[in-house]
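Thread: FtsW/RodA/SpoVE family cell cycle protein, structure

OP (GT): Posting the sequence first so everyone is looking at the same thing. Length is 457 residues per the record. Can we get the structure tokens written out before standup tomorrow? I want them in the notebook alongside the other entries.
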Amino acid sequence: MINIVVELSKYVILTLMIIYTILCYYLVVGKHASDRKGLLQTQISLTFFLDFTAFLVVFLKTFDFKVAVFYAEMMVYFAAILILYRRIYKNASMLLLNNMCMLLSVGFIMLCRLDIASANKQLLIVACGSAVALVIPVMIRKMKFLKDLTWIYAGVGVVLLAAVLVLAQTSYGAKLSLMGIQPSEVIKLTFVFFMASLLAREVTFKKVVLATVVAGLHVGILVLSRDLGSAVIFFVAYMVMIYVSTRKPVYLGIGLAGGAVGSVIAYHLFGHVRERVSAWKDPMAVYQNEGYQIVQSLFAIGTGGWFGMGLCQGSPEKIPVVKNDFIFSAICEELGGIFAICLILVCMSFFLTIVEIALQIKNPFYKLIAIGLGTEYAFQVFLTIGGATKFIPMTGVTLPLVSYGGSSIMCMILMIAIIQGLYIYREDEDEEIERHRREAAKRARQRAAEAAAERDY
């Protein structure tokens, strides 16, 4: 009986995910749909039904009461964050919030299936991060001086990265964390704020040079620390923000050429890079060593097929660091390739929503922040999924909101709160423009009335 429930659950979960994904794009494109509120509530219902089905299966396969307790705690968290956002920030983007909850749900399901202790720790970090994040939209709206802290952002980033380079222990071939915290995750935020602050006003050649020097320091220290995934994310965010602020393709071309040269130099300087490239080119040739991770990842993806093995039916634990770098492979194995494609599409709709917010903001500082954060998010998704599927060499970054990781998940929650603040700021801009329009129309009517009165006189 349990096996029948597990088999049927695959198709129930997949159907719920497909409907949710379709609604994501309908809501992104259909801005003025009269039933928008109802569709957003439908998304929440789909997420809750998906969670119930998945956790029921995990419980039936394990009969671990901790799974039921975790499910109850997770539902309390989702209910609290959805209610609080609707009460405190009536103008917040509910689509962003819904997507955050869906991606967190997928991560919690897989973590609970893999390691209940990690799932509990992840939920605690998410809850703490969300509590802090609730005040960030207010800060974005009220703290106008944020655009003036240009060199503080730069200094904090360089100092923290240098501290990691000097003091951190090597883990998986790279220096990543200090005292259990990965500063590069926090610096993703400060770096974007630095670039936005520097380039928000008139962009001169001198400013481009200064931005390049500071970005070079960030990327250079990360390369020396062998944190190549973060280095690539910083570099791409730098290029996009420079191009958007200057609108000069020549800078984009120079950046791409410089990145290509830097990649070749890194390949020849660091054995760690050569190992990953070797594993990417022919993982079976080095299966016993550096190719083991990617081979196991590909086996898992292939085993899952389109519809997956079913929760608790596969062997994702055979993939090293599956909770962090290769959680996408575990999702493919147990929930299927179609579910994984829907997950990618949800991530894309998340990014498109951020881009839409950026395009509608008038203030250049806030516009650049939205573009920079959106670029970092999208490229991190690309690096994680590309590495797990052997599309590109593995870079060792996590899948945002889905993978296990304290610093990563905390900073992603804060990033979403910043974007929510920008969305609310955009709404305030629209209201201000509408207010000025009404006042101008009122003054025009008054002048017309006065002119008519003078003619009658």
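GT: Both are above now. Quick notes for whoever picks this up: The mean pLDDT is 86. The first strand starts at residue 170 and ends at 171.
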